[in-house]
Amino acid sequence: MPAPLETLAARLTRARDATYASGLKALLLTPSPDLRYLLGIGGESHERLTCLVVPAEGDPALVVPALERPGLDGTPVLRLGVEIAEWTDGDDPYSLVARVLPKFGSGAARVAVGDAMPATHVLGLRAALPDCTQVLASTVLAQLRMRKDSAEIAALDTAGRAIDRVHARMGEWLRVGRAEAEVGADVAAAIVAEGHTAAAFVIVGSGPHGASPHHDVSDRVIQPGDLVVVDIGGPTPEGYFSDCTRTYTMGEPAYSEVADCYAVLQAAQEAAVAAVAPGTTAQSVDDAARSLIRDAGYGHRFIHRTGHGIGLEVHEQPYIVAGNDLVLDRGMAFSIEPGIYIPGRWGARIEDIVVVEEHGGRRLNHRPRELAVLPV
Ligand code: ZN
Ligand code: ZN
Ligand code: ZN
After folding, report:
1. CATH code of 245's domain
2. Is residue 154 domain-shared with residue 85, that is, in the same domain?
3. What is the pLDDT of residue 106?
4. Number of domains comprising the chain
5. Ligand nearest to the CA of residue 334, numbered in listed order
6. C-alpha 160 to ligand 2 mean position (Å)
7. Does 30 share its domain with 105?
8. Were both Cys, which of 94, 171, 347, 355 would link to 210 (CB 3.0–4.6 Å)?
9. Ligand 3 midpoint to CA 114 (Å)
10. Secondary structure of residue 192 in the 3-state scheme
11. Which secondary-structure segment (H or E) carries 44?
């Protein structure tokens, strides 16, 4: 489900204007969330070059392999005034990019290439445009993509509600005696059943595995007294992601320090959400959570940033991290997900997606944030 045509057209115009304002000659994008944002088309960047060329002045063009051209029928691309430049196997697609670019005078110039463009294309483009220095496309596009419009916020809200419904059913699957992987398979099916197109990630970190923030699932069998970190999400049909963590306990926690630590964690998550407002910085939101955890003596156990932006990608700008003095603005959406991790014992994390609104942050996840006690 691509964004409406007029939305895409406006984004293309803004991208071109931002390219011009940045003193760049062009924006070069292979299939990626950036391309989905501007053209409403998905797909993957294979070895054959598909490349959107957005010149600072002039009309955009899409360089596309002839065999991929029929796939554009029915997509917004053909109605956006984007020139289609086809190539066939045996042609040099990189020199085709150079040819569709409006001529700019001799001497040094800069072009932006997609942040995750495969190196094979980056180097091919560099060879075809030897006078151009390459910079990252995020220098132009992050400012656009960070500020979500109301339809994007609505899509994130839909995603948040869908993943909340999965957490609400966790007791159906998360039980003592089951392996993390068995629980994870059921959760993945529920993520799809509740309205996502796929389960992008399912972390079921039980007991000591909870202390590894990006644990996946394993064959470890869930024990009485385990804390279990469940961090799950996926894309909706609009392409916008959910991402929500809750921590469960199988009966009474096995470790006596858990209750006090968890109370600190919950207060830290609350404080960070409360710190969200237009005009405040990303790093001050991180600090709101981190200072509470540090003061309780667990600063060294909170081993990651407080959050990440979310939208067409699970992780995108803005990053809620020390050193990021980016000023938050209305329409920005990101996670607030502090954690405390005790190696070899347990971990806990609380994660909600928060949108910056006029008067502060609004959560898009609504499940209770207390340690959720499941029966053993
Ligand atoms: Zn993460
Ligand atoms: Zn996250
Ligand atoms: Zn997460």
Report:
1. 3.90.230.10
2. no
3. 67
4. 2
5. 2
6. 12
7. yes
8. 347
9. 24
10. helix
11. none
Q: Which of 99, 122, 144 is the last residue of a domain?
A: 144
Collect the ranges in the chain with pLDDT lower than 50: none
Provide the pLDDT for residue 214: 93
How confident is the model at residue 2, as a pLDDT? 83
The closest ligand to the CA of 313 turns out to be 2
- On whether both 206 and 291 belong to a single domain, the answer is yes
CA 359 – ligand 1 centroid, Å: 27
Residues 131 and 260 in one domain: no
Which amino acid would we find at residue 97? Answer: V
> Rounded to the nearest whole angstrom, what is the distance from the C-alpha of residue 243 to the centroid of ligand 2?
5
Residues 140 and 215 in one domain: no
Q: From CA 83, how far away is CA 327, in angstroms rounded?
A: 37
List, in order, residues 6 or more apart from 360 with CB less than 8 Å away.
274, 276, 277
Distance in Å, CA 335 to ligand 3 centroid: 8
Q: How far is the CA of 296 from the centre of ligand 2 (A)?
A: 23
Question: Which residue's entry shows tokens 């001497």?
Answer: 107
Same domain, yes or no: 360 and 220: yes
What is the predicted pLDDT for the residue at 46? 86
Q: Which ligand is nearest to the CA of 320?
A: 2
pLDDT of residue 43: 84
Q: How far does residue 214's CA lie from ligand 1's centre (Å)?
A: 6
For 323, phi then psi, to 5°, come to 95, -10
Is the domain of 215 the same as that of 82? no
Q: What is the pLDDT of residue 102?
A: 82
CA of 344 to the centre of ligand 1 (A): 20
Task: Looking at the structure, tell me whether residues 103 and 133 fall in a common domain.
Answer: yes
- Which amino acid is present at 212? S
C-alpha to C-alpha distance for 259 and 286, rounded to whole angstroms: 23
Q: What is the distance in A from the centroid of ligand 2 to the CA of 140? A: 24
Q: 296 lies in which domain range? A: 147-374
14: domain CATH number is: 3.40.350.10
**Of 124, 144, 164, at which residue does a domain stop?**
144
Tokens read off for 10: 């406006």
For residue 149, the model assigns a pLDDT of: 97
**Rg, C-alpha atoms of the chain:** 23
On whether the CB atoms of residues 79 and 5 are closer than 8 A, the answer is yes
291 C-alpha to ligand 3 centroid (Å) = 21
- Tell me, in angstroms, the distance from the centre of ligand 2 to residue 302's CA: 14
Report how far ligand 2's centroid is from the alpha carbon of 131 (Å): 40
pLDDT digits (tens, 9 = 90+) for 231-244: 999 999 999 999 99
